[in-house]
């Protein structure tokens, strides 16, 4: 059996929202400080399942940084990663990038809109949607950074 590679940091983010700005700068700076960081740069075709590489990286990471952006909750891939991160129960650092932490925690605004669509699309798998909701609430309850308060 191949041993999973250990990372210092696993970055969870919605690529369309943050990849070409905030996340790319964060990744570059972490790497510059020799912090081994997993970033999944593959584009997942619509309807595909999350690959094994990110899930294995989550298990091997010491810290997970979750970048909650406007459309984070609309991605089932992001929510699958989030559920796995929260199941691993390691150090988790939420970053609220342009999103109000309270809106994420209470699942209002864009998060509520995303979950309304998930509930429609996953009528047959209510448990999955409930696990995503629970993971999102747990992560948003953690102390993190709000981009609106960082200068």
Order of helices and strands: EHEHEHEHHHE
CATH architecture: 3-Layer(aba) Sandwich
Number of helices: 6
Tell me the CATH topology: Rossmann fold
Which spans of ≥5 residues are poorly predicted at pLDDT below 50?
43-48
Strand content: 15-25%
Strand order of the largest sheet: 2-1-3-4-5
Q: Give the strand tally.
A: 5
The main β sheet shows up as:
5 strands, parallel
The CATH class, by name, is Alpha Beta
Radius of gyration: 15 Å
N/C terminus separation: 46 Å
CATH homologous superfamily identity: Toll/interleukin-1 receptor homology (TIR) domain
The helical percent reads: 40-55%
Principal-axis shape? globular
Mean pLDDT: 86
Features:
151 residues, Rossmann fold, 5 strands, alpha/beta, five-stranded parallel sheet, globular
List the helices and strands and how they pair.
Blueprint (H helix, E strand, L loop, with lengths): L6 E6 L2 H18 L4 E2 L13 H9 E8 L7 H13 L2 E6 L4 H6 L3 H12 L4 H15 L4 E2 L5
Parallel strand pairs: 1-2, 1-3, 3-4, 4-5
Helix pairs in contact: 2-3, 3-6
Pfam family, one: TIR
Protein name: Disease resistance protein RPV1-like
InterPro entries: TIR_dom, Toll_tir_struct_dom_sf
Q: What would your notes on this structure say?
A:
This is Disease resistance protein RPV1-like. The protein has 151 residues and is of the alpha/beta class. The chain has a single domain (7-149), classed as Rossmann fold, CATH 3.40.50.10140. It is 48% helix and 16% strand. A five-stranded parallel sheet has the order 2-1-3-4-5, sandwiched between helices. Strand 1, helix 1 and strand 2 form a beta-alpha-beta unit. 35% of the residues are buried. Mean pLDDT is 86; it is low at 43-48.
């Amino acid at each position: 059996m191949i041993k999973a590679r250990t990372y210092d940091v696993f970055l969870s983010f919605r690529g369309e929202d943050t990849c070409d700005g905030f996340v790319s700068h964060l990744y570059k700076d972490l790497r510059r400080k020799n912090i081994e960081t997993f970033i999944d740069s593959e584009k997942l075709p619509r309807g595909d399942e999350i690959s094994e590489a990110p899930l294995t990286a989550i298990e091997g990471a010491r810290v997970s940084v979750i970048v909650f952006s406007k459309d984070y909750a609309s991605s089932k891939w992001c929510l699958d990663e989030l559920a796995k991160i929260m199941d691993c129960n390691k150090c988790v650092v939420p970053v609220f990038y342009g999103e109000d932490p309270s809106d994420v925690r209470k699942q209002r605004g864009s998060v509520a809109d995303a979950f309304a669509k998930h509930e429609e699309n996953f009528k047959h798998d209510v448990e999955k949607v409930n696990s995503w909701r629970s993971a999102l609430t747990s992560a948003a309850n953690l102390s993190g950074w709000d981009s609106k308060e960082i200068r």
